[in-house]
Amino acid sequence: MSDKPKFAMYWAASCGGCEIAVLNIHEKILDVDANFDVVFWPVAMDAKYKDVEAMEDGSILLTLFNGGIRNDENAHIAKLLRRKSKLLVAFGSCANEGCIPGLANLSPVEDIVNTAFHTISTDNPNGIHPQISYKMPEGEIRIPTILPRLKTLDQVVDVDYYMPGCPPESHQIAAVIDLVVQVLQGKAELPPKGAVIGAGNSTVCDECQRKRNVKTINSFNRIFGQAIDPELCLLEQGIPCNGIATRSGCNARCPTAGAQCIGCYGPAEGVVDYGARLISGFASVINSKDPKEIDTILDGIPDPTGQFYRFNLAGSLLKAGAPAWKKNGG
Amino acid sequence: MEKIGVYVCHCGTNIAGVVNVEEVRDWTAKNLKDHGVVISRDYKFMCSSLGQELIEQDIKEQGLTRVVVAACSPHLHEATFRKACGRAGMNPYMCELVSIREQASWVHTDKVAATQKSKAILSGGVRRVEYHTALEPLKVSIHPDTMVVGGGIAGIQAALEIADAGFHVYLVEREPSIGGHMAQFDKTFPTLDCSACILTPKMVDVGSHPNITLLTWSEVTKVDGYVGNFTVTVKKKASYVNNDTCTGCGICWEKCPKKVVDNVYEAGMGIRKAIYRPFPQAVPKYPVMDVDTCIYFEKGTCKACEKFCPTEPNSINFEQKDEFLDIPVGNIILATGYDAFDPHRIPQYGYGRLPNVFTSLEFERLCNAAGPTGGNILLRDGKTAPKVVGIVHCVGSRDKNYNEGCSAICCMQSLKFAHLVHERTGAEVYNFYIDIRTPGKSYDEFYQRLLEEGTHFVRGKVAEISDAVRLPGEEGKLVIQVEDTLTGNQLRVPVDMAILSVGLEPRADAKEVAKLFGISCSANGWFTERHPKLDPVATMTDGIYIAGCVQGPKDIPASVAQGAATAARVLGKIQQKEIALEPVRASVLEEKCSGCRICNDLCPFNAILFHEDKMVSEINAALCQGCGTCVAACPAGAISGTGFSNEQVLAQIEGLLLLNISEDAVPA
Amino acid sequence: MTNNKPFEPVIIGFTCNWCSYRAADLAGTSRTKYAPNIRLLRLMCSGRLDPTFVFKALANGADGVMITGCHPGECHYLEQNYKALRRFQLMRRTLEGLGVDPRRVKLVWASAAEGAKFAQEVTSFVEEVRALGPLNWGAGENGRVAEYQSTPQEALA
Questions:
Q1: Which one of 2.40.10.120, 3.40.50.980, 3.30.70.1130, 3.40.50.700 gives the CATH number of domain A6-101+150-184?
Q2: DSSP characters for B612-632?
Q3: Which of A144, B283, B284, C25 is the most exposed place for a label (fewest CB within 10 A)?
Q4: More confident position, B390 or C152
Q5: B342-393 confidence digits (pLDDT tens)
Q6: What is the DSSP string of B131-160?
Q7: What is the pLDDT along chain A (330 residues), one digit of tens a residue?
Q8: Which of C48, C58, C109 to mutate to test the interface with B (most CBs of B within 10 A)?
């Protein structure tokens, strides 16, 4: 054991993209190694939960926690790492706001499990259905219990910093690591607790180079099947670009490449409900006063829930769809 | 931690008769302690001076930082309690008034439910008040000049009152002369004084008044700014006449070879020339060129007017261009009047098809000594005097198909016509009416006089006017088909002349004008007053007033009264020199604004401007009216609004829902 | 539910300062009775209505939300109620996607003169929501969101 500060990273309900993004910082990863003692990072090294349990509380300086809390194992490790860490960072969209796994909050758990095991897309000739526990001659074995709904990290434990993105941009990760190293060297100070780090305060439009005019929307269109003006704001071309409400920090990657922003950096500073911002922003500038015509224009957004809450459902005010609440009880 | 004082008013028995005030007081003290409530009191009449002193005393002695009063509607006593707090040294905007009278005791009979609801309302107020911020009213200076738009009698009256008081007025009129509809009339009811005799002196006063800048043949194209500080852009249309040298001698229009039917002043009954002055007493006296009909503008040759103009230098100038003037004013009075209903829209009345069906305006010109027949009431042939005249009331008024409202002036106008026909031709007159409405001073006396004069009154809505002969005696006549609803008989009344007493409608462009000036109008287009009873000449937009028929149909005395009333209001504002605006305003936090421009088109008051250089939007606080639409729309959450911030509203929602009705006793 | 009393829906009503709030005032001064289930919140204009407010009300236990404003064409701020209309339509679609019966959110125009209409609209909306049953998203102590959010404390304990 060295006397370097300890670093941990963990993935809960997530895809693994966040870990790749960390590796994508290239040689900066050496700074991590040079300045930290990596004590727990299941993707990168071998360590057991009991090793972490054995550590002193607060002994890990920095933990990057990615993934939402979908099962009791996720919750257990979140609480464990909270206890052991001085600084717990909700790292990436899943931990911040639920992200794609959070969209499962539209459905009750049994529907999710049925879809996974018993629909036509699953090859399951024996109709195997997972059980939480199973008695074997050697004793009872257990798999983690899926929770009624996915929660964001801060809905389960106290979080020190938030680092959004699906995944966070590598240059932002590098900048945050730089900052922490500087703090360690006494050259910088930590931002106030609860701050969003590795992102801007404004929205994607701030970094988007497309030209924009006074906005009115006459129709919503899909990105394909029409000629897209490479210079003009996508929303002004009827493409439902979420950049207007999405936190800056990604250098407007998607709109720059000609695809609409889908909102992976989450809401801007201080925003209570991300989807509400988009609903209000889009709808306010629809160019019609006639309810029927407005409806026709809105037909251009066939899945409003997906459009507005693709990344933010679990972190939104309503947090889940009604079926998920109803069938699973409190 | 805030120290919040809560005061629950009994309002005598108005509240306490239904809401258990003591229970609300105690519940608040106990349950909202954690939200900062340190005092919870009840009192018989909070708005009384003793009630107010109670609050003031607590602020001073207990060091309250916020006050919530649960009493009546904020529209009634918000100002009262804010002032009380202000007197005790607290910022007045730290006070919140919640209504448990209009919203609970007066609308619910169930005492338990009303009490529970009062607790919820109060807890909403307590949660909200925590997020109140100290605000200062916005002070703006008042530019002493005024613009009056519309030179009819209402606008003339307003302009003269203000100018006589010593302040400058710009009077804008789109026709070549001021005077409006009143200048077209012959006589005015019920006194039958000559319209021109009483109007033209006022017109001359306007034309020569040192404090009035008269801008005829002009239209407002743009309005910027806000109360006290408007900038109005006026388009002075090219008249092709140099008014500095023109003497109004009249040779140009005498020599002009182009005759044009005058659809405005003469209501289509007379002709004018391409260069014209609408009537001899016109103010100003200068003619204007109608480029749509002028031969030179059509064919490139003629210029008769220029050739014959006797002035030196020549007053005709074909090179003249439209001029745009930016005029700073503090207040604006809109007196743009009305349009007469076009009876072509009721084909069964035959107007336009049957020559001897006249509109009321046409008849006014017919009676007028300066009109096309020299004041002789003659049929369309210009020769024959009618022997029988039918006057149809309520044409286009009180009719679901056209205008549901009463036009207010048509009964009296029709009675006036009946009298004039009688007096001048001796013809028999029939008035076809739905109801006779004569509520003005000396109006009903005039009606009685007509009854004595032998005018026939038939109560019924005219079904049809036709020239189809069905009975003997109808040959060559117009037949008015009507049910006499007093006797239940169908009548066919043959007449020589039918006069359609057409109703008053909002100007065809009323809605665009309302939008231009940033005021609201009713669905049909009458401009909306601030309060129908207590503030009939102000609008919801500070600094913009309405006078005359633009607000709704009315007669001359009422128009004059409104014109004078707007002047009084404007003079009051000018005298204040500086006024305080409600500080409920939106603002953009520059570092959060991404310049997405969603908000740019949302403000009807043009308070939002976009800085291309910095790529951020900014709100002009003085222009902002505080509606909050941009606050709600900003996708970045970069716009915040005072008085109704997100924090205030969200906390109030939490407060309102603190108490779940299902969990408490609410007997059905 | 902790008792056997009939379901009493809780409605949050958003009013605009110039028309619908005054309609509510007029209902009051005219002593027009309506169901006590609504709790009103005053905004300056229906254009101030942020969909966040509606979601917040539902998440905090309201069974329905009534949004009111001046009639189209009569907005004190000229046409901001049209913006409220557009947001309302998109918000309803989004709520439907979340499985919330869109009938729980209603838009009502009421002028300052329509106290009786306002009262009648409230009463009929209360009955409509009563028929839909409790939404129970986060009502009171037993609410679902309340439970959902209570986890951090237990985790930190």
A1: 3.40.50.700
A2: TTTTEEEE-TTT-----HHHH
A3: A144
A4: B390
A5: 999 999 999 999 999 999 999 999 999 888 999 999 999 999 999 999 999 9
A6: T-----PEEEE--S-EEEE--SHHHHHHHH
A7: 578 999 999 999 999 999 999 999 999 899 888 999 999 999 999 999 999 999 999 999 999 999 999 999 999 999 999 999 999 999 999 999 999 999 999 999 989 999 999 999 999 999 998 888 889 999 999 999 999 899 999 999 999 999 999 999 999 999 999 999 899 999 999 999 999 999 999 999 999 999 999 999 999 999 888 889 999 999 999 999 999 999 999 999 999 999 999 999 999 999 999 999 999 999 999 999 999 999 999 999 999 999 999 999 999 999 999 888 875 443
A8: C48
pLDDT at B469 over 50: yes
Q: How confident is the model at residue B520 (pLDDT cuts 50, 70, 90)?
A: confident
Identity of the residue in B73, B523, B656 whose CB atom sits nearest the CB atom of C73:
B523
Smallest CA–CA distance from B124 into chain C, residue: C41
C-beta neighbour count of B87 within 10 angstroms: 15
**Interatomic CA distance for residues A214 and C95, integer angstroms:** 29
pLDDT in tens, B301-316: 999 999 999 999 999 9
How far C26 CA lies from chain B's nearest CA (Å)? 8
Residue to substitute from A325, A326, A327, A328, interface C, most C β-carbons within 10 A = A325
End-to-end CA distance of chain A: 45
Please provide the DSSP assignment of A181-225 as one string: HHHHTTSS-PPPTT-B-SS-SSBGGGT--SB--S--BS----SSS
**Residue C83: inside a domain:** yes
Question: 């530019």: which residue's tokens?
Answer: B143
> Where do the H-state alpha helices sit in chain C?
20-29, 51-59, 80-97, 115-132, 144-156
Bridging pattern class, strands B95-99 and B66-71 = parallel
Packing angle between helix B153-164 and helix B195-208, nearest 10 degrees?
Answer: 40
In a domain, C148, yes or no: yes
- Dihedral sign for Cα atoms in the order C86, C87, C88, C89: positive
Q: How many domains does chain C fold into?
A: 1
pLDDT above 80 (res B523): no
Report phi then psi at B153, rounded to 5. -60, -35
CB–CB contact C56 B653 (8 Å) = yes
**Cβ B190 vs Cβ B101: under 8 Å:** no
Cβ count within 10 A of residue B476: 9
Instruction: For chain B, list the contacting chains (3+ Cβ pairs, <8 Å).
Output: A, C
- CATH number, position C70: 3.40.50
Entry pTM: 0.78
Tell me how crowded residue A71 is: count the other CB atoms within 10 A of its CB.
Answer: 16
Instruction: Give C24's contacts in chain B (Cβ within 8 Å).
Output: 102-103
* Structural tokens at position B553: 């149909």
CB contact under 8 A, C90 and A303: no
Residue in chain C nearest A328 by alpha carbon: C144
Residues 6 or more apart in contact with residue C134 via CB below 8 angstroms? B662, C1, C7, C9, C63
A202 touching chain B per CB within 8 A: yes
Please check whether residue C152 lies inside any domain of the structure: yes
pLDDT tens, position by position, B197-218: 999 999 999 999 999 999 999 9
Enumerate domains of chain B plus CATH numbers.
Answer: 4-135+649-663 (3.40.50), 144-237+326-337+507-581 (3.50.50.60), 238-321 (no CATH), 341-503 (3.50.50.60), 586-641 (3.30.70.20)
